[in-house]
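Page header: ASSEMBLY MODEL / two components / 272 residues total.
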Amino acid sequence: MSSLFAADVNVAQNVGFYIIAAIMVFGALRVVSGRNVVHAALWLVVVLGGVAAQYLLAAAEFVAISQVMVYIGAVMVLFLFGIMLTRATIGEESDLNNKNWAIGIPVALLLAGTLVWVIVDEFGGEVLTSPEEPMSTTAISDVFLREGLVPFLALSFVLLAAAIGAIVLARKD
Amino acid sequence: MYAVNFLILAAVLFAIGVFGVIARRNAVMVLMSIELILNSVNLNLIAFAMMNNSSEGHVFALYVIAVAAAEVGVGLAMVLMIYRNRRSIALDELSVMKG
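Prediction written out in full:
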């Protein structure tokens, strides 16, 4: 697996990638294995922040800022409110997992093994050249407002329908 | 940096998220695992956009972020309603529609 260590390109970028990746994988494992719902939500913040940092390493600054604002700013607040409104007890719980949760381990290992094998087989030696400058917001908005205009408008209706649907579902009468 | 770095990280996160969906009993925890899965797909999209030096991947990632936000809003509203009706959000107790 020497292809995983790219020595001929930006060393600082590689080191940063591996540090952030290790933190992300550890946080993700804590999200799916912890016994405390609130702690799992806070570890999810770590993972989402790590994803935003990886976007910055990949020169996708607009997506990184969107990630921070939407996920860490909005979605995590929703999750914490959901936990508070559905759980009377804040603290450790013993029945967070299904009875036959262990079947998930071979499934996940098999899935990860297959994906890694296919990825290494297909993209084994391909080098990502770091772009000179980050992807500009102008380029992204050009796609959004030309060929992506119809999906963009449809997406706004999806968000409107989701907001109205959430209000209708959650109101008390 | 090699392309497999991003892709393997995304694959590992995806597998962890799938494990969470299978193993967890609490509906909110399952929604969190789905967020992990969506984020791993977003990492893939950004990596492929970097590989091809195009902006379409970024646009798709933004679509995914918006749809994920809508999904979490509706999903948590449903979980809240289930909790209000049944005093529990354990997924294996929701067997009303079982034949």
